[in-house]
Amino acid sequence: MSSQFSLLNKRRFLPLFLTQFLGAFNDNAFKNAIGILATYHAGRIAGLDPKMIVTAGTGIFVLPFFLFSATAGQLADKYDKSKMIRIVRFVEIPFMLLAILGFTLENYYILLAVLFCAGVQAAFFGPLKYSILPQHLRETELVGGNALVEAGTFVAVLLGTIAGGVLILSGHGITVVSGMLLIVAVLGWATSLGIPVAPSSSPQLKVNLNFLAETGRLIRHSYGEKDVFLAIIGISWFWLLGSVFITQFAPYAETILHADQHVVTAFLTIFSLGIAFGSLICNKLLKGEVSGVYVPVGAFGMTVSIFLFWLATPHAVAPSGLVDLTQFLAVPGNWLLLASLLSVSIFGGIYIVPLYAIMQTRCEESFRSRTIAVNNVLNALFMVGGSIITMILLKMQVTIPQIFLIVGAANLPVAFLVRKLVKQRRAARGVA
Fold first, then answer.
1. Residue 206 gets which letter from DSSP?
2. Quick one: pLDDT at residue 238?
3. Spatial distance between the Cα atoms of 152 and 211, rounded to a whole number of angstroms
4. Fewer CB in a 10 Å sphere around the end CB: N or C, the chain?
5. Can you say whether residue 425 is alpha, beta or left, with left for phi > 0 and alpha for psi between -120 and 50 degrees?
6. 318 lies in the same domain as 346
7. What is the pLDDT, as a whole number, of residue 26?
8. Is 152 found in the same domain as 15?
9. Do 383 and 309 share a structural domain?
10. pLDDT of residue 404
11. What residue numbers bound the domain in which 171 lies?
12. How far apart, in Å, are the Cα atoms of 395 and each of 59, 71, 242, 392?
């Protein structure tokens, strides 16, 4: 594991790592601050339905991935990626200034407009941050670099989510959150200035602004690279599974476990840190080799762990009322529940990191950013699909634990799919 942490001492990695960490922190702090503010104040201030604001916010943030990923991938292949990253991070500063105006006026239309802009920014940043890694890292460092990026992202998501939710309701919450968002945006741009040059991989590329036609063309191209496309499907499935768990933590804790918001925070913490830890140990397992050999292990491990999580659920039900975290932890059966959730997330980290490295190294170099753009589109599509399926199941009176079990069972075919990826590569090249 020491080899991957040594990357944090290198200019070709550290500035990018800090830039993406600060960006992920700000996105999630801003999103959760809007959600919490809407929940506690929207009805009083503007007669708006808080659930509608939160639901609309989720869709507004995801929509730009469908609209702009194809264009983002083309631009990332056509121009120097380090310059593009600096531009993307700089525009976050005026966005956050507009967010401050929205918070000050408590105007949710302005805040949702800024959230859309944040989604656009994330859609443009994704292809850049993943396609620049193979240019700055050796192949033996790529798994470790991806592991650090994934670990850092989930830790940043966790910290941002907690900070945005806690601070917005504190004394002078709007002022504190506004100042934090602006400072982090400026720091994110400042760290991007240290990212080394990453020359264009396809300078003659003509950018097609017809996003529908270009998205279809990029998907067809990626489909032609079977192992790359299988990796993308595997990554997208992980984001579907993860989004189902994360979005259902709160209702699961309240309606099934009869537990308060502190237990929900504990679930989010365990899930995020587990993925971070699994991502980091993945490089230790692979010894720096870009290989899918442990991807099936991660997939099967997630399935078994989800089944254990489902089994542990009946023992975790409190007799009455909402229990706090101390009371929750006093029930012995709940430790099995938390251990199962930790296991799900650790195996998730082991599963996801090699797939990113496979996608980055086995696609055409001149097409790398556009391949990652395809990944972003399908990630968003899978997450939206997961949300729709979850809503349908809830409408059919399927319980949340049963939804978790269904997702775990559906994970088995994915495990066999990624196992097929490993076998295909071994047969073709003698390696995974």
1. P
2. 92
3. 31
4. N
5. alpha
6. yes
7. 95
8. yes
9. yes
10. 93
11. 1-201
12. 20, 37, 21, 5
- Domain shared by 331 and 414, yes or no: yes
Distance CA 22, CA 24 (A): 6
So what's the pLDDT on residue 432?
46
**In a 3-state reduction of DSSP, which class is residue 259?**
strand
Whether 370 and 265 map to the same domain: the answer is yes
Residue 74: give its domain's CATH number. 1.20.1250.20
Higher-confidence position of 202 and 177: 177
- Which amino acid makes up residue 322? L
Average the pLDDT over 21-35 and give the result: 91
- For residue 295, CA distances in Å to 208, 238, 383, 418 come to 35, 11, 20, 7
Interval 293-322: pLDDT, tens: 888 889 999 999 999 999 988 655 555 677
- What is the C-alpha to C-alpha distance for residues 272 and 299, in angstroms, rounded to an integer? 17
pLDDT tens digits, one per residue of 405-427: 999 999 888 777 776 666 665 55
φ, ψ of residue 317 to 5 degrees: the values are -75, 125
The helix (H) or strand (E) run that includes residue 35 is helix 14-37
| Same-domain pairing of 184 and 218 | no
Domain final position from 146, 181, 201: 201
User: Is 4 buried (19+), middle (13-18) or exposed (0-12) by CB count in 10 A?
Assistant: buried
Q: Number of folded domains in the chain? A: 2
pLDDT single digits (tens) 234-277: 999 999 998 889 888 888 888 888 888 788 889 989 999 999 99
Distance between CA atoms of residues 77 and 206, nearest Å: 10
For residue 165 the two structure tokens come to 């939710």
Average pLDDT, the chain: 86
Tokens 């801003």 -> residue: 30
pLDDT of 336 > 60? The answer is yes
DSSP alpha helix (H) spans, 313-331? 325-329
The span from the first CA to the last CA of the chain, in angstroms, equals: 21
Is residue 165 scored above 90 in pLDDT?
no
**Three-class SS state of 323:** strand
- Segments in 204-260 forming alpha helices (H): 211-224, 226-251
Neighbours of 392 (CB within 10 A): 10
The two tokens of residue 343 are 């296991």
Distance CA 354, CA 419 (A): 13
